[in-house]
Specification:
three-stranded mixed beta sheet; five-stranded mixed beta sheet; 18% strand; 13 strands; 14 helices; alpha+beta
Length: 395
């Protein structure tokens, strides 16, 4: 019997709805309401690059333009409604999810010890007790507060001295918790001084957490391959995700932007959910390169026909677009990408270039819509003026 087919237009609408991008970009974005938005997304990825705004702030702003950076910091550091750990990368996660991170911590404890021994961080294991003692006596502490006698390298992202490595390992494996960030540098404290003891003591068995993570990933994807489900939280193995999908879900084919079909899994009500999902607004939205709707580049390319690669680490002469280019969403389509930077010393948001997608006619109306969105972005970035460079509209 042939499997049913979810048409591309329906798949896009459902996917955007699950990522809170079909809702009108409006409404409050503070306190518990902001917490509910993050819960709906599952997590918000952290990133330090701040050409306009940091990724976690822009992700939330794209859905709630009233959002300001202090709203997330307050929810995280003061209200303690979020905790920081890893999914596919460092992320802020709703505190109520903490019990299911015991599985991740246990798996990281062995995996990272094996990996980091081979990454020339010699001696980090011997620093565990000393680092824990220092945190117990002085916490919260940053990486510059420990291992002061140890030789420092060049200071690059992965050039860690042994005590810095020990801090990271003890955080990832659960003994320490990040309490917040100063100038984006993590501050660590003993987990029992940060996390409610009931959450620490609530330790679901591995199969319960595997089920929770697979079901939670599907809730936020709408439909997925087993590999996409495994990758969502990056804790469940591909084999575990495949077994869960086979036991609990139905198969269907999802139409890609190019008309090809991709076999996926979904719940039986996926077609009803897709047909009832709202039509996204025609307003242009600027998305972070790390927006959850784009994090899986291959999936985004299949669904939207939008090929995107971040070029931060690409030499300038070899870049196709720019250092940090933002995708532009309008309705159900990714219509282009924009290279811009907030020059706060000049009180300007400078647009270097906009590249429409090849099948998009860039009209004056689109330029007006983009300008209106950039005014809103400027409020988040802390600039009041917009400047378009000569020749900004690129073929």
């Amino acid at each position: 019997m042939p499997v049913p087919i979810l048409k591309n237009a329906d798949a896009r609408r459902l996917f955007l709805d699950r990522h809170a991008l079909a809702d009108p970009p409006a409404g409050p974005a503070k306190g518990p309401i902001l917490g509910e938005l993050i819960k709906r997304l599952g997590f918000v990825q952290l990133d330090s690059i701040n050409t306009v705004a940091r990724a976690h702030d822009l992700i939330l702003f794209a859905r709630r333009p009233s959002f300001r950076c202090a709203d997330l910091k307050r929810l995280y550091e003061k209200d303690q409604a979020l905790f920081e750990h890893w999914t596919h990368d460092a992320a802020m996660i709703p505190m109520e999810f903490y019990p299911h991170w015991h599985l991740r911590q246990a798996r990281d404890a062995q995996k990272l010890k094996n990996q980091w021994r081979n990454w020339r961080r010699d001696g980090f294991e011997s620093q565990f007790e000393e680092v824990l003692r220092h945190v117990r006596d002085h916490g919260p502490v940053g990486s510059s507060d420990v291992g002061k006698h140890e030789k420092r390298g060049s200071g690059g992202w992965w050039d860690w001295h042994p005590s810095k490595t020990a801090l990271e390992y003890l955080w990832r494996s659960g003994a320490l918790t990040v309490t917040g960030r100063n100038a984006f540098q993590k501050q660590y404290d003993l987990t029992e001084r940060v996390i409610d003891q009931t959450l620490i003591d609530n330790r679901p068995d591995p199969q319960t957490s595997i089920y929770w993570k697979c079901a939670g990933a599907l809730d936020r994807l709408g439909f997925a391959t087993s590999g996409e489900i495994a990758a969502f939280w990056a804790t469940v193995t591909p084999a575990e995700a495949k077994a869960w999908c086979t036991e609990h879900l139905a198969e269907l084919d999802v139409e890609s932007a190019d008309g090809s079909l991709r076999r996926c899994f979904a719940r039986p009500d996926v077609f009803t959910s897709a047909h009832s999902a709202p039509e996204p607004t025609n307003r242009i939205r600027v998305l972070s390169p790390f927006d959850p709707a784009l994090r899986d580049r291959a999936r985004a390319e299949r669904l939207f026909g939008f090929h995107y690669r971040i070029e931060v680490f690409t030499p300038e002469a070899k870049r196709n677009y720019g250092y940090y280019v933002f995708p532009l969403l309008q309705g159900r389509r990714l219509v282009g990408r924009i290279d811009m930077k907030a020059h706060r010393d000049l009180d300007k948001l400078i647009v270097r270039a906009v590249w429409p997608e090849k099948d998009i006619r860039w009209s004056d109306t689109r330029t007006q819509k983009l300008g209106a969105e950039l005014v809103r972005i400027g409020r988040l970035a802390g600039t009041s003026r917009i400047e378009f460079a000569d020749g900004w509209l690129r073929p």
